[in-house]
Amino acid sequence: MRIAVCGGPYGNPYALRSFVDDARARGAERLFCLGDLGGFGADVDALWPILTDNGIECVAGNYDVAIARGDADCGCGYRDPKDNEYAQIVYDHTLAATGRDFAAWMGRLPTEHRETIAGVDVHMVHGSTLALNDFWWESLPEEEHRLRAEASGADVVLCTHSGLPWQRRIGDTLAVNVGVIGKPANDGRQEVRYAVLDLIDGHAAAELVPLAYDWQAQARSMRAAGLPDVFVETIETGWWTTCLEVLPPRERSRGRYHLYRSTLPSGFRPADDDGWGDATPRAVQDDRQVVPPAVEDDRPVVPLFGSPYFPSRLWIYTNFHCNLACDYCAVASSPGAAARSLSVGAFRALVDEAVTAGFSELYLTGGEPFLHPDIVRLLDHASARLPTVVMTNAMLLRGRRAAGLAELVGLAGLAGRRLTVQTSLDGATAATHDRHRGTGSWKRAVDGIGHLIDLGLPPRVALTETPENTHDIPAVAALLAELGLPAGHFAVRPLLRRGFSATGVEIGEDSTIPELTVTADGLHWHPAGADRATSPDMHLAPAGTPLVLGRQLVTERFFAARLTDGSLPRPVHCAM
Ligand code: SF4
Description:
Elements: E1 2-6, H1 13-25, E2 30-33, H2 47-53, E3 57-58, H3 62-69, H4 81-97, H5 100-107, E4 112-117, E5 120-125, H6 142-150, E6 156-159, E7 166-170, E8 173-177, E9 192-200, E10 203-211, H7 215-224, H8 229-237, H9 249-253, E11 259-260, H10 270-273, H11 282-285, E12 301-302, E13 313-317, H12 344-356, E14 361-365, H13 375-385, E15 388-391, H14 399-415, E16 419-424, H15 430-437, H16 441-454, E17 460-465, H17 473-483, E18 490-494, E19 517-519, E20 522-524, E21 539-541, H18 547-565
Parallel strand pairs: 1-2, 2-3, 5-6, 6-8, 13-14, 13-19, 14-15, 15-16, 16-17, 17-18
Antiparallel strand pairs: 1-9, 4-5, 7-8, 9-10, 11-12, 19-20, 20-21
Helix pairs in contact: 3-5, 7-8, 12-13, 13-14
The structure holds iron/sulfur cluster.
The site of iron/sulfur cluster has 10 residues, from loops.
Keywords: Iron, Iron-sulfur, Metal-binding, S-adenosyl-L-methionine
Organism: Streptomyces peucetius
Domain Radical SAM core: 307-537
């Protein structure tokens, strides 16, 4: 026996008609619907004749129960006020648009159906075996899946409600979330999904079937009914724009939108917050995303990537070895550190991938990038594609490297390359600076800063604040001004407890905003945690993982960390 089971028609008669045709064409002998007849589209009453004329066997969803009773809300089980606000808009429409006869019919539907079909014990529910409005997500922990399967004990349990299709074996039970046909599955496709099950001699197999239908007609009917564009967009694009907060981290990370705009920190301006203020070098300032693209339009939802919580800058470790061995180095670099250099080819491919993946800035760091034998070629390629900042201790800007950089600066003027150099100075005297960074390093760093100024590439200079140099900060600012560094190119950053540093500010996934970082070892949550040996907690994925997948992993981890205590990570500007 072949059966077809759909969930959530959501006032979408066009999808329901296609479900009937498609299921019949596939040889389904019985058709089932697991409830939520209204709830997104405009024309709920049009579903009734399709259901009855085609003998679709229905169980009631929470929506149907609420509409039948004339409740004040849908009872979908959202906890976030914004989710509830959108749900209420559609519920009010559905309640007003549903004829009372149809509503009374909904009220007579059972809330579950259990039947042995071809020797298979099949249990059909709306939310789960625990509750009518329970969200049975694929990403639930194993024990949660077992709890729901064992609450039934059937061979097959079928559900919908959460709206996202999946199937899995849980012990002896085949559990299938059949998805919904009222709106797409937040996957960028207009098709919706339903399930076809073959039940033969006590055995069951399920297939989740994509269903094409006249989504343009559905969109038109929603607009004609005055439903907000934010709902219509989901029908037209396949991406969810509402009900975001209910999505668990994994399911949420797979969608295009992740946050309601109203949850973004108001007035967040990365450029003002990073210590560089108005004097951010012109080349960078012009391209900084004071308002990231993700929040520029008027959509009520935004992607996490490109928002202040996940800046669209990509950090690349060109190499890990360094001519210095600072005792506070967050990535445990030194002359003896394994180089872990990126080849020119790998670097170029990465930069090109970053452009495609939507990154808007590159930060090249190490180790000491100017130890990379091809650093000038790397800077050439990077700065031609995206605004690029290179972090250096400025001590190696001599000979071949200095000449190459000078040539590049010439090119920058000619070809519009956007390159900024950033370096470090921890004291106004060698005594203070060299204490953590090594004998002789102050003099060469000061010489390097002077060289960059002469080159027409005045660097940003950051001071890593320690108990030993706090008092020296005004003197460092004065020294830099004396060297001719423009005002505002100097900033102070905190010492971080990472790598070689046993003291300083604690950072972790639950306490910093993510800044996707690439090294020869793969992808990392943040540049200060890019050394896999000393920061295994910040390693996201192995080398070769696409940046787009990295964005998704960051998004999932961001929401997992956020949901632990309900708060959002704070930005820690450790390297800018
Ligand atoms: S802090 Fe910078 S300059 Fe010092 S060892 Fe680490 S990478 Fe090298």
